Structures are given as structure tokens and as C-alpha cells.
Amino acid sequence: MSPLVQPVLRQLGLWQTFLAQGFAPSHRTLTSWDQAGLTSSELLLEARGPSWRVDRRAFDGWLTAAGCRAAECVDAKVCHLAREADGWSIVCDDGNSHSARLIIDATGRARALADRQGSRAKAQDRLIAAYAEATTSGPAAPELLVEAFDDGWWYTMALDQGRRAFACMTDADLARGLGLNTPDGWRAALARTQFVSALGSRIIRLEQPRLIPAGSRYAATTAGFHFLCAGDAASAFDPISGHGVVKAMRSGVFAAYAACDCLARGDAAALDRYGAWIAREAAAYATTLSEHYGSVSRWSERPFWRRRRADAPSRNPSSSLLEQ
């Protein structure tokens, strides 16, 4: 996770308890992107602090528990959602009905409530992750390693107990052609890298690769009548940004501000301001993402890179998304 997680967790009053979870700081990221060699982004002296290597399941569970301590938790699935004069009525699969003055959809890419209301998100690309975890031999290098190749890019990082995460990021149609959902196809794509494959050569046992949608998406409507989308339900970022979790948490904070202004202060424009903020954030991200992908010229005629260079600005990017 990005160093920017620290101010968000401080704002939520959770920074010290986050540190107590024992997640490991990461002071360096290794990249092979627009040049063939390997470069290092040192975070040891970074004023914002280190990045963090977290067990995502443990992190999500910890954050969920903190949220449930601050609010009433109803463990049920929404079956029906209907607008009323001053809010919403909700029917859940446990047979109970509820009323709400305002709805926040924080169900991630599933957009379980927003899509039900006819608000669709527009996919900006077809990026997909062919993700697999593996048991490896020898000492584990803890740094995040990112490496571009002709059909996309890879990342790998150490987990725990001799395990590593590997992911090949490419477009969905290219993933099918490469057979990335099969061990043989996945390994063949891995062999086309230099640095990630060196770590992959130490794989003892490989789990079945899984294809996971990872493309950029943006909801044209993130706010409506007493309704907000937060996190990936509002906009989903490419993993190369390194900001997905922090972005989602930050949008949750701003969604809470908007809800409070709307309900407690009677500010009718609060939800529209939130929607405008989401739109500005998504536009700035799209520009920076285009610059970052556009900086790679080694495989300019390959479909993955050609698609991303089509709308890339002609100027060179001043900084990498991974360093922001």
C-alpha cells in the first residue's frame, strides 16, 4: 500500500492500531519499465514514510471490525431497494426490512446497489490480472518488483512462510490468447520476463492461476437522490497506480462528509460536490496513467502498448505513478 495510507488512517483515528497489526514496511520498489535495466525507488528517506506490505485478508478484516465498532452491522444481503419520499426502503434476505435516509454503495467493482438502480460504470480498458501464489525456495526478497514485457507487465512480492504472489497484467483478449488461466500458458508468459522469471525459477509449487478483472472504470453518476458510490464502486484504478486501497478509503471519508452535510446540515448540494470531486480525481488519474503507459516505447507496436499509447500525451512524464 502507498505511503499515503498513513494520513488517511490518522484521520480515521486508526494509525496506531494499524501499526500494532505488525504489517511490514517496504522501503524500496524495483522496476523495469521504460528501459531494459532494473531501477530502484528508495523510500527509506521518503517524508511520507514507507509503503506497506499487508496481508490483504487480515487488513480488510481489521478495518471491517473497526467499522463495525462504530456502527450497527446487519449481516444480510440486500434483496430489494426502493426509493421513498425522504429516503429508501430496504428488504434483506434475512426477511427483515429497513429504512435509510441515505445509501452509500461500497461494494467495490460489483456495484451491487448502484447497478440495480440503473447506474452503470464505463470500462476504460480491458486490463485483467492472471494472479497466482507460489511456494518458492531460498530467501525471499521482500521488495515489490514490477516489470514490463511485450504483452503487459508483471509484479511479484513476498508473502510469508516462503510464499510469493505473482501477477501478469494484460488485456482480457490477450490473456485468452496466452492461455494465462493455465499453468503452462502462465509459465510461458513468465519466461518472457527477465527479473520476475528469475524469482519464478525458484517456484516449488504453483497454485492454479486466477483471472481477476483489474481495469480502470468510472461511474458516470456517483451521486443521486440520497445515494452515493464510494471506493471502487465510484471509480476503479489500474493497479500500477499503487493507490487503489488508499483511494477507496479516502473516497469513503469524503462520502461520509457529504452524507453528514446532506442529512445533518440540510445542504442539498453536498452530494453533487462529492460527485464532482470523484470526477476530478478520475480525470487527473486518467491523464497520469496515460502518461505512465505512454512512456514505454520498447513494444510500441504490440497491442497492449499500442492501445495505451493511442491517447498518451506527447510529452515525457515527469514522474512515475509508482512514486507518487
From TrEMBL:
SUPFAM superfamilies (UniProt xref): FAD/NAD(P)-binding domain
InterPro entries according to UniProt: FAD/NAD-bd_sf, Flavin-dep_Halogenase_NPB, Flavin_halogenase
Signal peptide residues on this chain, from the entry's feature table: none
Source taxon at top rank: Bacteria
Pfam families: Trp_halogenase (PF04820)
Protein's UniProt name: Flavin-dependent dehydrogenase
Species of the source: Bradyrhizobium japonicum
Lineage: Bacteria, Pseudomonadati, Pseudomonadota, Alphaproteobacteria, Hyphomicrobiales
